[in-house]
Amino acid sequence: MISVGRLCANNSIGKSQSGVAVSNINAQKPEIVEAPKNQIVLIGSDVTLSCTARGLPWPTIRWIKDNASARVIQDNRTIRSRRFINGVKMEDYAKYQCAANNSVGRSKSGMAAPEKSTPTPTHHKNGKPENSASQTNIIAVSYTMVAAVMCVVTRFVWNRRKKSC
């Protein structure tokens, strides 16, 4: 960045003015120094993505979701920005990127994505799980049973029919 101005000096001897003075200010293109990181997140929980950038003049940070310019989440914070997602829903599982801009240039971070997690049961003093999922299934079972009966004969009785004429 180039600054243009006029130098003026004034002391007990007199005054002096120069023509045009040109000075170079150390402008810097934005640089992402802390990029958002992948995190494992449960549905319904909260997550924070952080982005820190440096540059001169100070950059403005904005958030991009799923690399779509139509889905830009404007933040307008300079230097450090945090993206809070309260009560994560299925549509929040996406790729997030921060972009830093100033008058010298632009810089983008890599992509970060909240990853889905399944709850791990934790136990209280009473032994019941604090966070658990339960499901009841009713299963109908059909079966055939074959039985073999064994008998021991202890006596025979013979009955004879009489002939009738």
Automatic annotation (TrEMBL):
Residues 30-118 form the Ig-like domain. SMART domains: IG (SM00409), IGc2 (SM00408). It comes from the Eukaryota. The chain crosses the membrane at residues 138-158. Residues 104-133 are annotated as: Disordered. One of its GO terms (biological process) is homophilic cell adhesion via plasma membrane adhesion molecules. SUPFAM superfamilies: Immunoglobulin. Gene3D superfamilies: Immunoglobulins. GO terms for cellular component: plasma membrane. Keywords: Disulfide bond, Immunoglobulin domain, Membrane, Signal, Transmembrane, Transmembrane helix. This is Ig-like domain-containing protein. The lineage of its organism: Eukaryota, Metazoa, Cnidaria, Anthozoa, Hexacorallia.
